[in-house]
Amino acid sequence: MGTRGRGRIAEVRPEESESGATPVRGRAERRRTAQRAARRRRRSLFRELPLVVVVALVIALVLKTFFIQVFVIPSGSMEQTIQIGDRVLVDKLTPWFGNEPGRGEVVVFRDPGGWLENERKTSTDGPVVRRVKQVFSAVGLLPSDNEHDLIKRVIGVAGDTVECCDAKGRLSVNGTPVDETYIAPGNVPSRQPFKVTVPAGRLWVMGDHRDLSADSRFHMGNPGGGTIPVDNVVGRAFLIAWPLPRLGQLDVPKSLSSIQARPAASATVPQSTAAQIRAGLPGQAPTPAEPSLVMGVLGFLPLVAGWGPAGRRRRRWPG
Q: Could you give the CA distance from residue 177 to residue 196 in angstroms, rounded to a whole number?
């Protein structure tokens, strides 16, 4: 009996010793494994980061060039529809399919010449900083010194006769009075009379804040009689994206879109209009020049933050 008891004790002790030592070795090994995995993740992130940045910049460049671009509004010429500091999304894809802007649409267009003051300042940036700014400008993160864009509403297209004002003080297109509910409160359609026929391939544009907008009315002495080339249109502004309380579509008013079209006229300015411009039109003149629109961030930074293994681990998707 004593032998059997001692044998059982001898058999149990090694098992107890092993069972007692095993958890200690397991915890230490798990800590070392976790530390090695964390180091591998950090090294992986550092290796992937340059690739992620390059891919994000390429995506931003493609979006900005062909699809959608963000613009920051620097002036009040489109109030109250668009206010200073609003970020608007501009559709750049539609013009690639040959669709021309229609009456009532809000469009961004390049300066046709003489609309913006070209006050060039000598850059004090070094070659490296200048190169970085050029890259950021190309993808839409910074405004470019070579791009001068404005934003206005299309009032007349090719062939239209735009006139202001009738006996009731209304603007008319092709003889049809326009109910301009979109103009800023306290403004009239125009404080100076004008009448122009829009030539082929051009547009007549005006700001919604008529007293502050140096629009087509104030460039009638330029080539084209104040109209802008359709080819200068960058795209249609279709959405106010920021700030969030002002999030909303930029609708096209039916009072303009429903007007009957007329055949396009030749690109000439009536002599009576030109003489009226030289003589000086009555009314209140707005600021003679407007600041260029500022290109906004295309929003690819969240993509960088969530790219790669580390980003996927940090992100938590709903559901």
A: 15
Tokens matching residue 140: 């839409």
DSSP letter at 63?
A: I
Say which amino acid occupies 13: R
pLDDT per position as a tens digit, 180-233: 999 999 999 999 999 999 999 999 999 999 999 999 999 998 888 999 999 999
Distance of alpha carbon 227 from the chain centroid: 24
Q: How far apart are CA 312 and CA 319, in angstroms?
A: 15
Q: Which residue, chain included where needed, has tokens 């391939």?
A: 201
Strands, sheet with 176-177, edge to edge from the N-terminal-most edge strand: 176-177, 172-173, 161-164, 194-197
| Locus of tokens 């993808």 | 139
Cβ atoms 93, 67 nearer than 8 A: yes
pTM over 0.70, yes/no: no
Active site residues: 77, 152
Residue 248 pairs in a beta bridge with: 240
Task: Give the residues across from 177 on adjacent strands.
Answer: 172
